[in-house]
Amino acid sequence: MTRVNAAALATLSLAPAAPQKVQMRTAKLENDSSLVWQANGEPDLAGYRIVWRDTTAAQWQGSLYVGNVTEATVKLSKDNYFFGVQAVDKDGNASVATYPTPLR
Q: What is the pTM assigned to this prediction?
């Protein structure tokens, strides 16, 4: 168990910082979910990944790499899923996911 914990900590230490100011647009009643976030400053950042899970699931069930952008829309309802945004570096290391707050 100690080795597993050490490996997890090593992986997290190599990952970029989690995205900041992640928000979900909630002004319109639509089935798509639009997220916006502040760009990370790491020089080796490759882009961002949106992750989601059912509201009853304990782990992320799906993901979509959206590239080096600060806004993206997924064809899933914000009423049925929890979303997060991860930063991904050029080596494939991913940050922990940041949950969005509502943007009205």
A: 0.87
